[in-house]
Amino acid sequence: MITINNENIAEVESLVIEAKEHKNKPLPTVIFYHGFQSAKENNLTLAYLLAKENYRVILPEARYHGERSENLTDSEMSLAFWDIILANIAELEKIKADLEKDNLILNYRIGVAGTSMGGITTTAMLKEYSWIKTGVVLMGSPDLTKFSSQLIENFNKTSEEKISEEEEAEVINQLLPFDLSKNIKALNNRPLMFWHGELDDIVPINQSESFVELLKKSSYSGEVKMLKEKNRGHHLSRYSILETVRWFVKHL
Which CATH architecture has domain 2-251? Predict the structure, then answer.
């Protein structure tokens, strides 16, 4: 029997999905981050399938989302996009420490994954934390600075409120330390999978494609996989979910 429990882990509202017989026992652990304007509950299908493979899955709620909502306007949420990702990064270390305190992680086996904003978060976490064993990026971008410039350009086109060049430069400087595309050595040959719909008009597929090509041309020796799906926009498919489960079964 697979159980779903709402828990506060390191002061972060989270769902914990696991087989009932494994409760309070050490397990390989996948921490999965949801997308922008989404919520932790939206990834329960994937979490359930991973739990059936004897993983513990943690679905944290991102700042300003779901149970952590502060009723921000759409414009305020857009302006908070990178603050949310930076909060995710900082909170992951605390979540890990809380799980370790209770001896819930088996043999340091921690994987991270996410969709869209959660996929972008995943790439930044791989840059920041060497203890992550493997990652899966679902329709995310590893090029934080380029994607940030794209978001700011789009925001300035559609919003009465404008982000200045000075403010953009400040954002870029804040993101550079977490930009995996500028720091590929930080991957240290860890296995990494990308999935992207070819018709995605929210997060460009070319940023992940370019990164994977860069890895293949480098001395990177870990397994890297780029899965592309035709006729698919910015929305997960059954195929992407099953491939994510297969990846963790193989690498975690």
Answer: 3-Layer(aba) Sandwich (3.40)
What is the identity of the amino acid at 25?
A: K
Q: Which two tokens stand for residue 139?
A: 């329709």
Domain ranges of the chain: 2-251
Q: Is 137 left (phi over 0), alpha (psi -120 to 50) or beta?
A: beta
Tokens read off for 73: 């306007």
- Helix, strand, or coil (residue 146): helix
pTM of the full structure? 0.96
The first and second tokens of residue 4, run together, are 């779903």
Beta bridge partners, 111, equal 30, 134
Q: Name the helix (H) or strand (E) containing 94.
A: helix 81-101
Give me the tens of pLDDT residue by residue for the chain, a chain 252 residues long: 999 999 999 999 999 999 999 999 999 999 999 999 999 999 999 999 999 999 999 999 999 999 999 999 998 999 999 999 999 999 999 999 999 999 999 999 999 999 999 999 999 999 999 999 999 999 999 999 999 999 999 989 988 888 999 998 999 999 999 999 999 999 999 999 999 999 999 999 999 999 999 999 999 989 999 999 999 999 999 999 999 999 999 999
Spell out where 73-191 has E strands.
Answer: 105-115, 134-138
Residue 182 contacts residue 121 (beta carbons within 8 Å): no
